[in-house]
Design a protein that fits this description.
It comes from Nyctibius grandis (Great potoo). The protein is mainly alpha-helical. It has three domains: 210 residues, Growth Hormone, Chain: A; 223 residues, Growth Hormone, Chain: A (Up-down Bundle), CATH 1.20.1250; 94 residues, no CATH class. Helix content is 61%, strand content 4%. Strand 1 and strand 2 form a beta hairpin. Helix 4 runs antiparallel to helix 8 and helix 18 runs antiparallel to helix 19.
């Protein structure tokens, strides 16, 4: 009995403790569930945002891959193509301030979803001209009416061709001219790209800050790196899609394939540029779906509940952060507007932010211009087709960029690099990247031998855009047009502007396999008395050019990787040097400045500079200058690479200034911390301890914030 009573007493005494244990267990369980809910929510948002980045990068890169196709299809110069490309940034400019400032205080996921739908509408609009304009007409007349005589041949005896045929052909040209006179269908491409820019506006400022708000500090850099890496996968598929569509004829499905007289290797070839935009628009619609079901707010991580800023941010934010920020849920639009100017003043009073903004603007001028015209540069410099160019960029160059961006985020996390280290990493990647870019000047190809442009009809090397130089004794009696561009390759390895200017008087077969005979100009270089033959299309570049192209690809890949390593550190530097409640606004201003001062002007002035290297301009059917047909390879190389390199080196000077300001602030803050630590009898021992050992820092100082672990 005694034993049993003791057991009962022990049982009841233990049972009285059980409620306390259960409540403790319940609190731990709820905390665990909250943590899981937070992690699950942010990961769902991360996946949805990554897919949106993929979609917008796919459509954006596809536009870059179709630059030369659009130029030929609408017969416009590179400078106008640059305006079309820059219209995307103009769309961003129209609403970026409103979206970044007011959007941060509204339902961010749904705003992103609405932006995706607008972006898809713009992408569909770009493809619309294909269905409203006539069939593509290249500068090659149908070969032949009587199987041996072509209107483009050297017709020294005008009676060889019946007058009715000439009149019929001229009537056809005039009819086409009347149709094209009121046709400016490229405006639809510009407007569609403008709409794409409007729809893309909320994705970056609202998406990145949403992650930074609800992810743990140690995961923020990795998540941002993942988003940017997935965004780079988009251009891979974008350029590969561009490569596939470039092999399909622009009017495939509408014309008989046997009637097409040119191949995808021809300089006048235009691929099915419109098809990729329909695919990209559909993907953007799918990307918008998840955001309509995501919450406005997620539970904040435990490490961020008791602090509004990280200790690392407080090192570089000189403003007073003691103000309690109002809840965004019940703030009215009028109250938001009152804070606009003070927020703007606070932002532009931050020297780190301003200097980094200047460095980014100048660097992105160089990178945007370089990327926009890279396909054109490869095609013109190394004689590659549009399809192969897009394939190489998508499969080799873009993955190097993705790996570089991801490496930057991984380095930040593994080495726990602070803001000062992020600035160093960003500066180092830019310096070595542009240093490698310098070597590309030695990896170019010489100009192809084109009679009357880069070489005379007698074999003398010359460089001229004088139209009279296209004529020589061998073709004076041919009544050739100086505006034609229908290149043929002579058996002597020289390209001639047209069969007429080559003095060719006969041809066999027709279409792609046409062979011209009795070409009086072809035989003048080696044996003036001998008349030779020629085939359709320009001659290939010299034998050394494929080797130079291989060297170019290797250096280009290494350069792309090196420059991309600094991408994620740059983002972290931008986020950590500003006050938390201004992050969305700061990213919006940053994006606005990039759009206005880099995204809009860079393609335009790069295009204008590239146009100055043109040797042979095409002519529109109604008169006026069309798209460039042939560039001076050496001048193009110096203009394209030189402009990129000069801008890049200027941006490095601003990056050095950013590092200097951060060093100055870091050293002064460390002195203050050391003094506070001595008063508390537990000072910090070294700068390394201040940046890395955050737990020790919390115990020995009065900072309530936790050190950022990147």
């Amino acid at each position: 009995m005694d034993i049993s009573s003791k057991d009962n007493a022990q049982f009841f005494s233990n049972s009285t403790i059980l409620p306390v244990d259960r409540s403790s267990f319940k609190s731990e369980s709820s905390a665990s569930k909250e943590k899981q809910s937070c992690c699950g929510g942010i990961k769902i948002f991360l996946g949805a945002l990554s897919f949106v980045y993929f979609a917008k990068a796919l459509s954006g890169s596809y536009l870059k891959s179709t630059i030369t196709q659009i130029e030929r299809r609408f017969d416009i110069p590179s400078s106008l193509v640059g305006v079309i490309d820059g219209s995307f940034e103009i769309g961003n400019l129209l609403i970026i301030i409103l979206v970044s400032y007011f959007g941060a205080k509204l339902h961010r996921p749904r705003i992103i979803g609405a932006g995706c739908l607008i972006m898809s509408a713009g992408t569909f609009l770009i493809a619309m001209p294909q269905f409203f304009m006539g069939r593509y007409r290249y500068e090659r007349f149908p070969s032949n009416i009587n199987s041996t005589v072509s209107i483009s041949l050297c017709l020294q005896d005008k009676t060889q061709t019946p007058l009715s045929i000439l009149e019929k052909s001229q009537t056809k040209i005039n009819a086409g001219c009347e149709k094209e006179a009121g046709s400016t269908m490229w405006i639809y491409v510009l407007l569609g790209n403008l709409l794409r820019g409007i729809g893309e506006t909320p994705i970056q400022p609202l998406g990145i800050t949403y992650i930074d708000d609800y992810a743990t500090e140690e995961n923020a850099a990795l998540y941002i790196g993942c988003v940017q890496t997935v965004a780079i996968i988009g251009p891979i598929f974008g350029f590969l899609l561009g490569s596939l569509c470039a092999k399909l004829y622009v009017d495939f499905g509408f014309v008989d394939p046997d009637s097409i007289m040119i191949t995808h290797k021809d300089v006048q070839w235009v691929g099915a540029w419109w098809l990729g935009y329909l695919i990209a628009g559909g993907i953007s619609v799918l990307a918008s779906v998840p955001f309509w079901f995501l919450p406005k707010h997620l539970p904040k991580p435990e490490s961020r509940k008791d602090s509004s800023t990280s200790s690392e941010q407080s090192k570089f934010i000189t403003e007073d952060n003691k103000e309690q920020h109002k809840s965004y849920q019940q703030v009215k639009i009028a109250e938001m507007a009152k804070d606009f100017l003070p927020s703007l003043k606070s932002l532009f009073g931050n020297p780190v932010y301003i200097l980094y903004l200047c460095a980014s603007i100048i660097q992105l001028n160089s990178l945007i211009g370089m990327v926009t015209y890279k396909p054109k540069y490869i095609e013109q410099q190394y004689g590659q087709t549009s399809s192969k160019t897009n394939f190489v960029i998508g499969l080799i160059n873009i993955p190097a960029v993705a790996f570089g961006i991801f490496s930057g985020g991984l380095i930040m996390k593994k080495l726990r690099i602070n803001v000062l280290g992020a600035a160093k990493l960003s500066l180092g990647s830019s310096f070595f990247g542009y240093l490698l870019l310098l070597s590309l000047f030695a990896m170019g190809c010489e100009n192809s031998d084109v009679a009357g442009l880069t070489v005379s009809y007698h074999g003398t090397k010359r460089m001229t855009d004088d139209e009279q130089a296209q004529f020589s004794e061998c073709n004076l009696g041919c009544a050739c047009s100086k505006n034609d561009w229908d290149p043929i390759c002579g058996e002597n390895g020289v390209t001639y502007i047209s069969a007429c200017l080559a003095g060719c008087q006969a041809s066999n077969s027709s279409g792609k396999n046409t062979v011209f005979f009795n070409c009086s100009c072809v035989g003048t270089l080696e044996s003036p008395s001998k008349s030779s033959s020629a085939v359709v299309g320009p001659c290939q570049k010299e034998n050394e050019c494929p080797k130079m192209f291989l060297y170019f690809l290797v250096i280009s890949v290494i350069t792309s990787y090196t420059l991309s390593v600094g991408g994620t550190p740059g983002y972290i530097l931008l986020l950590r040097c500003i006050k938390p409640h201004l992050k969305s606004f700061a990213l919006g201003i940053y994006t606005l400045a990039i759009r206005v001062l880099a995204g809009i002007p860079a393609p335009v002035y790069f295009g204008v500079a590239i146009d100055t290297t043109c040797l042979k301009w095409g002519s529109k059917r109604c008169g006026g200058r069309g798209a460039c047909r042939l560039y001076d390879s050496s001048a193009l190389r110096y203009v394209y690479l030189g402009l990129t390199l000069v801008l890049g080196m200027v941006s490095i000077f601003f990056s050095v200034a950013v590092l200097w300001v951060l060093r100055k602030r870091s050293s002064s803050q460390d002195e203050t911390l050391s003094a506070n630590g001595e008063r508390g009898a537990c000072g910090t021992k070294s700068r390394k301890d201040n940046f890395v050992n955050s737990d020790h820092l919390i115990q020995t100082t009065y900072w309530p914030e936790k050190e950022t672990r990147l």
